[in-house]
Amino acid sequence: MAEVYLGTHLTLDRAVAVKVMHNYVESDPDLQSRFEREAKTVAGLRHPNIVQIFDYDTAEGHPYIVMEYLVGPSLATYLRELHSHDKRLQPKQIARLLITIATALDYAHEQGVIHRDVKPGNIILHNKATNISTQEPITERTDAVLTDFGLVRIAQAVTQTASGSVSGTPAYMSPEQAQGLKVDHRSDIYSLGVILYEMVAGRIPFEADTSWTLIFKHINEPPPPISGIQPSVQIVIDRALAKKPEDRYQTARALAADYMDAIGMFAEANTLRMSLPPSPLSRPALAPKNANPSSVPAWIPTASFVLLGLILVALAAIAIPQFVRYRQAAVDAQMKSDLRNAAVAMESYFANRMVYPASVAEIAGFGFQPTPGISLTLVNLSQSAYSLTAATPGGTQASFVYDNTTGSMH
């Protein structure tokens, strides 16, 4: 589908990855237009756990994409090395990876972009402070970054693809994708479920000698249970790998939150759920047609309401302080996310104008919109260095300084 080259961005003087597609589009204006449309959509994604696309064009008729270059092993390489020594990731390490991947997927899905090839080989383990070795454990400083977002869609855009064709990686492919049916974001969630199965079990759920046998198993066979794990974890995996999209998790974050609940990370799960869209309200149950209201003593409804009121007061006394703590944690996490997204927009601004902006408002046109209630302050320290400070209404602050000359960040 493509070849990847290591290049240098002459304006920013930094290493970049250049992915050159095998397809030839110069002689077909329709294919050229489709490539530019799809590439522009993917390039618009701005998330700290999605590899940034800087540019796209064609060279000698071949479309290419210029992307952020990250140093670090893929999750596939890391897991392969770990499993070769008969070791497994710890549950909290899995949760750490799962939440970052899930947040990135949900963000892209909300923008209308589906990955279509979520797999460990398209996830880079990156640490801004140091290089990651396959011999070292995953820590809180390890970021899981999704690559090749929308590459399958872009590849299809530059190909006269027949209806019903199958694209993706069979070992991580959803049943509907394997059948060549129309897919939505829940296909990515199935693939994430396969990755979760692999991290927990040390192997993928289905193995076969041929791709078509593998595809057949994804379509028709239930995933084999994993021996030695908690039943609650197995329930989460089974729901993620449901054959019908409507039976799966509807968001990747809901999958991550249920996994954290299953391994005892209740506070973290509740904080993550606060970022989820509200679920539809259940319909009230209808009274039986033969019910006779006059047969109920008059004091029972009054007593029921009094008892219900006392229960609600007691629950509120317990839940409100916890809700305040969880809410503050969610706001702090959003503040740090705003800080990272602002930094990406700053670099895009610099790449276009060769100078840093004078205020945060100037980077609004470069894919950044601050979250209401979170203030950001930009201070230009020199022509090549700046500092960003984010603050929440609760008084929490976070900041960093970046020097473009040395490439240092602290």
**CATH C-level label of the largest domain:** Mainly Alpha
Strand element count? 10
Number of domains: 3
> How much β-strand is present in the residues?
5-15%
What brief labels describe this structure?
single chain, 410 residues, alpha+beta, Phosphorylase Kinase, domain 1, Transferase(Phosphotransferase), domain 1, 3 domains, four-stranded antiparallel β-sheet, 11 helices, globular
What does this structure look like?
With 410 residues, the protein is α+β, with helices and mostly antiparallel strands. The protein folds into 3 domains: 2-66, 2-Layer Sandwich (Phosphorylase Kinase, domain 1), CATH 3.30.200; 71-273, Transferase(Phosphotransferase) domain 1 (Transferase(Phosphotransferase), domain 1, Orthogonal Bundle), CATH 1.10.510.10; 329-409. It is 41% helix and 15% strand. It is built from 11 helices and 10 strands. The protein has helices at residues 29-43, 75-84, 91-110, 151-157, 175-178, 185-201, 211-220, 231-240, 252-262, 266-273, 299-353; strands at 2-9, 14-21, 53-59, 62-68, 123-126, 143-146, 375-380, 385-391, 397-403, 408-409. The strands form 3 sheets. Strands 1-2-4-3 form a 4-stranded antiparallel beta sheet, covered by helices on one side. A 4-stranded antiparallel beta sheet has the order 7-8-9-10, covered by helices on one side. Strands 5-6 form a two-stranded antiparallel sheet. Helix 10 (266-273) packs across helix 11. The longest helix is centred in the C-terminal third of the chain and has 55 residues, at 299-353. The chain is globular, with a radius of gyration of 25 Å. The two termini are 38 Å apart. The model is unreliable at 160-164 and 280-295 (pLDDT under 50).
